[in-house]
Amino acid sequence: MNIYYGLDKIDENLKGKIITLGSFDGIHRGHKKILETLRRISLKEGKENLLITFEPHPRMVLEGIKENFLLTTLEDKMYIFETSNLIDNLLIIPFDKSFAQISADDFVERIVVDKLSPYIFVVGYDTHFGKNRKGDIVRLKSILSKERIKIEIVEPEVEDSQIISSSIIRKFIKFGNIEEANKFLGYKYFVKGSVVKGEGRGAILGFPTANIEFDEKIKMMPQNGVYAVGVIYEGKKYKGMMNVGKRPTFDEKLSLEVHIIDFNENLYNKTLKINFIKRLRDEVKFPSENELIEQLKKDKEEIKNLKEELWL
């Protein structure tokens, strides 16, 4: 996958391709349907494809959002695009308040048509673009038809009678409904972070934990609670239990702590990928350490007994 950053990087090599555009936050099953359509047409026509996305996410600029919002960071998206083998070329357009002032017509005519001269434009059914998101499918069809550029509209992906969207997945994650979020995403929701030195309290309790320094504060964190998680470390997968929250028994600040089952290596300064599998329970302030230990034993046993398909 070739990566281009900025409109000034557009050259003759990017012209005449099968293109799509969008924020693609989460790269969920609805997005994947668009990408698979893009690839199918690309192979049929014998032409490379091009995906155009924006950084940062437009809502972060327009609404001043600074944390706990994204389903996928730019790094996450680039990794998923690359490993999907669906995308030939990726163009990242820096999004700021000045760019946000470009009208829908100007965006399509001056940037998409004039600079890229696409062969076919693949879009989702609810595509909006331009200042105040005033551009839509009807307007896009009108502009492209004048330029004799074909358009392919991809219908929504539906699950449980609901249209899959980034917004609904954010709601699932916000309220800890990880299983539904994963079903709509088509993969396990994940975060990444570095292991830092903690108080060592978990080891004293018999449940040593890796304290995770969350690298990307803008990425959405699930509702506080205890979760069954999959831990990816140096390419290997482990089962674990993670506390997201403030460790109420000890009245401390917000933290991410993961106990990796049947694991005893030193992880300080190592990077872990944490896949969320299932929310087990709320955070609870226990009267004593012994009662906390008994609950942790129950949590561990519950994780061990989860159906194997949940981990796949």
TrEMBL record:
Q: Which reaction does it catalyse?
A: riboflavin + ATP = FMN + ADP + H(+); FMN + ATP + H(+) = FAD + diphosphate
Return the EC number.
Answer: 2.7.1.26, 2.7.7.2
SMART domains for this protein: Flavokinase
The enzyme class is: transferase
Q: Could you tell me which residue ranges the Riboflavin kinase domain spans?
A: 184-308
UniProt keyword list: ATP-binding, FAD, Flavoprotein, FMN, Kinase, Multifunctional enzyme, Nucleotide-binding, Nucleotidyltransferase, Transferase
Q: Which PANTHER family match?
A: RIBOFLAVIN KINASE, RIBOFLAVIN KINASE/FMN ADENYLYLTRANSFERASE
Give the family per the record: Belongs to the ribF family.
| Listed name of the protein | Riboflavin biosynthesis protein
Its lineage reads:
Bacteria, Bacteria division TA06
